[in-house]
Amino acid sequence: AAAPALGALLEAFARAGKPARRVVVMVASGAGGAPPRAAIAGLSAACPGVARVLVHDPGAPHRFVAGVTSRGVPVALDEALLEAEALVTVGPARRAPGGVSAGAEVLFPGLASRAAREAHFALAPPARAAHAREAAALFPPDFRVCWAAEPGGALAAWAGAGDEAERAASASLDPLRHAG
Fold first, then answer.
1. Is the peptide bond before 109 cis (omega within 30 degrees of 0)?
2. pLDDT for 73-91, tens place per residue?
3. Could you give the angle at the alpha carbon of 114 between the alpha carbons of 109 and 115, nearest 5°?
4. pTM beyond 0.85, yes or no
C-alpha cells in the first residue's frame, strides 16, 4: 500500500527540486521483524532512481538517541535518519486503544533499536499509541502520509506537516469506530 504513496511523493519531490537520486527510502521493521522481500521489491520498483532503499535492522547498534520518554525508554533510532534532509513517514492509520494512530509507529518503534522496541511492546496496548507519539515527538517527521481501508474497501489517505495527517485521519476514522 505504501508504493503508490511513495511514487506520488517522489513526483512532488522532483517538482520541488529534490530528484529521486537524492532520496533514501527507509523501511521500518514491524513487530514481526523485517517486511517480506516481495514488499521491498515492490517499493524498489515503485521508486525508480532513488539513492537507496534501506531496511531498518533493529538489532544493529543504535548510537543516535533522540531523547528519553517519560517512561524512561531511550529513543534509540536508526542513525541513517541523521543523514536525512527531510523526514517523511509513510504508514497506515489504524484505530487503536485510546484513539487513532496514524504514523507515529513508523518512526517509533519502527526505526528504533531492539531494546527500545521491547520496552515499548511491554506496555499495555492502550498506552502504546501515546508512547509512540511521545517518542516520535523527540525526532518529529517533517511530513506524514497515512492511509486506511474504509468499509467497502475504499482507500482513504491523509497527508500533512507535523500532526496534521494524524488529526485528519482521526477526524475521519473516529466516527467510523463509534458507528460500528
1. yes
2. 999 998 888 887 777 777 7
3. 95
4. no
Instruction: Give bridge partners of residue 157 from the DSSP assignment.
Output: 147
Q: Give the span between the Cα atoms of 4 and 20, in whole angstroms.
A: 15
Distance CA 66, CA 8 (A): 29
| Lookup: cell for 99 | 484513539
SS (H, E, C) the chain: CHHHHHHHHHHHHHHCCCCHHHCEEEECCECCECCCHHHHHHHHHHCCCCCEEEECCCCCCCCEEEEECCCCCEEEECHHHHHCCCCEEEEEEEEECCEEEECHHHHCCCCECHHHHHHHHCCCHHHHHHHHHHHHHCCCCCEEEEEEECCCCCEEEEEEECCHHHHHHHHHHHHHHHHC
Contacts of 18 (CB under 8 A, 6+ apart): 85, 86
